[in-house]
Amino acid sequence: GGQPRNVQPFSDEDASVETMSHCSGFSDPASFTEDGPEVDEEATQEDLEYKLKGFIDLTLDKSAKTRQAALESLKSAFSSKILYEFIMERRMTLTDSIERCIKKGKSDEQCAAAGLACLLCVQMGSGIESEEIFKTLGPVLKKIVCDGTASIQARQACATCLGICCFIVTDDITELYSTMECLENIFTKAYQRDRDTNGVSSTHNTVLHVSALLAWTLLLTICPMNEVKKKIEMHLHKLPSLLSCDDLNMRIAAGETLALLFELARETDADFFYEDMDLLTEKLRALATDGNKHRAKVDKRKQRSVFRDVLRAVEERDFTTEMVKFGPERMYIDCWVKKQTYETFKEILGSGMQYHLQSNDFVRNVFELGPPVMLDAATLKTMKISRFERHLYNSAAFKARTKARSKCRDKRADVGEFF
């Protein structure tokens, strides 16, 4: 009972600060209970839902700054908490708000709305409700992606959103092919620039081409094998041209896509043969050992690391297995398809990736992790280190580190004692 509380709309000056401050605790789902007094979970959930309702209302505010801050706050919450039941009751309202913000908003607001659409589908998983969301948002996203007058940032965000949402929700093979064609029409423009020049020049469109290529590659991983073969025949001899692009991210995206295409090609045909293998491996080896002085050291280090793995995949059919830890569980990334999927979800979930790997049924299903592992309170308590214990450990480590460094810095120290 009682009077309903009204959400006071924020002014332009304090919208971004005050709105985001509500979500400061969302980045760490454990922050509500860690080493503190007992918390009334039901009251905390009610308080959270009350704030989220306020943010949903603010997505309709007249101020663009307020709308964007509300979208960012919802993104922060959706990436760090499982809110399936709350969202289920309001999915149409959220979908309408996102559609309106993408259609009528400016660049930053469109980017925030596209990011929220991704998280909305991640929360809902692959069901009928998600298909309804995609039926509404899909055409709007495609329109922005293909709109040459829209900002590059908005088109880039919509291309990523289009790929991820299609990956999550669509069971319709026609829709899958249609979405891939839309993305192909974008990134294949990077091929065309290579016809008249030896290298691909970097332009302001490159970021859009990179996002479209990565989204397309993600969708390729769920295509039937006969379609995979067609796409490999269509793109495998064209993609190496993008390795000459001035933009580091395009070179890396092209290299990783090549590694994934070779992996899929060899799955479909164990005797797969690529005619220009020598030329391709020569290009990849040059990128893996690049020492150009005009490039930043950080860029060179990143490029060499990526292309060593790509070269190993193309030339030796090898993949360096990576391990991801989350809670008491471990996940092994042992192929390029899994790596591409993991990197995509990590990009949209950010710091909430581990939490969703533990708790989100859909995300666990994508990575074949089975149902969430249920741990009782006693087991969780034994696994968690208290703040006081962490403080003692950090203090001891700091003292030992300082002592060791002091010895090395003391000019009077006898060099012989270190051997």
Automatic annotation (TrEMBL):
It comes from the Eukaryota. Residues 1-40 are annotated as: Disordered. Belongs to the IFRD family. The keyword tRNA-binding does not apply. One of its GO terms (biological process) is cell differentiation. Interacts with PSIP1/LEDGF. The keyword Manganese does not apply. Gene3D superfamilies: Leucine-rich Repeat Variant. This is Interferon-related developmental regulator 1. It comes from Edolisoma coerulescens. Residues 19-315 form the Interferon-related developmental regulator N-terminal domain. Keywords: Developmental protein, Differentiation. Residues 360-413 form the Interferon-related developmental regulator C-terminal domain. One of its GO terms (cellular component) is nucleus.
